[in-house]
Task: inverse folding
């Protein structure tokens, strides 16, 4: 099938990865398995805004989960290749064990919204659709020496409740850690894996993003998202590229 990639979701002309995942996964959701459980994507080349083709394959339909594959093509070339597991979260399960702790943030009404253009010439289009509010204590530090390799903020979809597929957008919705280090520029994702753990409750979510190693032009980023109940509802990890100033 053909889809139209919305240029409003572009980051410096490149379409947002989480938006692409939601577009690829949504057609595979069914009444029996309405939620993505795990989504693992390889980004081969960045598609341009406009018409693209989606190819899907259902590998197995099971009782609890089903497995699928989806590919996004443009101009006859594969841009994104995704493995997807779907199932059904009931939103009522109590954690059996957890060591994750949600960051404490100032109230969202006292926090500033992240702008879609944080610095002149750098357009982060998805922040017109994702509302990210920064605790003043978590504001961008702007230098490698000051950065802790960690960022946290309030998150929600702009203009409506956050659905389960929207978590795929939010999992890639925070600015890259490199921005906290004062390193401007595109941070292209090579691989992104998202685990959706539960149905998010209504209200604000809290996102925390961390990096552990920058080396040889590559950075890892981990993102955890908690809902208004304090439940961990989404986890993500990606490998992305970066460039140091010349």
Result:
């Amino acid at each position: 099938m053909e889809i139209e990639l919305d240029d409003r979701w572009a980051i410096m002309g490149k379409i947002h990865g989480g938006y692409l995942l939601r577009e690829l996964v949504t057609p595979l959701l069914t009444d029996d398995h309405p939620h993505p459980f795990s989504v693992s994507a390889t980004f081969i080349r960045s598609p341009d805004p406009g018409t693209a083709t989606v190819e899907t394959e259902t590998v197995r339909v099971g009782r609890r989960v089903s497995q699928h594959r989806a590919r996004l093509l443009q101009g006859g070339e594969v841009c994104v290749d995704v493995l997807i597991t779907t199932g059904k979260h009931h939103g009522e399960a109590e954690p059996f064990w957890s060591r994750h702790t949600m960051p404490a943030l100032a109230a969202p009404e006292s926090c500033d919204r992240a702008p879609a253009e944080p610095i002149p010439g750098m357009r982060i289009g998805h922040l017109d659709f994702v509302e990210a509010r920064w605790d003043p204590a978590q504001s961008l530090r702007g230098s490698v020496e000051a950065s802790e390799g960690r960022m946290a903020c309030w998150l929600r979809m702009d203009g409506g409740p956050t659905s389960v597929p929207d978590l795929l957008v939010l999992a890639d919705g925070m600015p890259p850690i490199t921005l906290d280090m004062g390193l401007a520029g595109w941070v292209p994702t090579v691989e992104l894996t998202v685990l959706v753990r539960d149905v998010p409750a209504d209200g604000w979510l809290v996102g925390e993003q961390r990096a552990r190693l920058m080396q040889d032009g590559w950075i890892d980023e981990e993102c955890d998202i908690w809902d208004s109940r304090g439940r961990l509802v989404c986890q993500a990890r990606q490998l992305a590229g970066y460039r140091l100033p010349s």
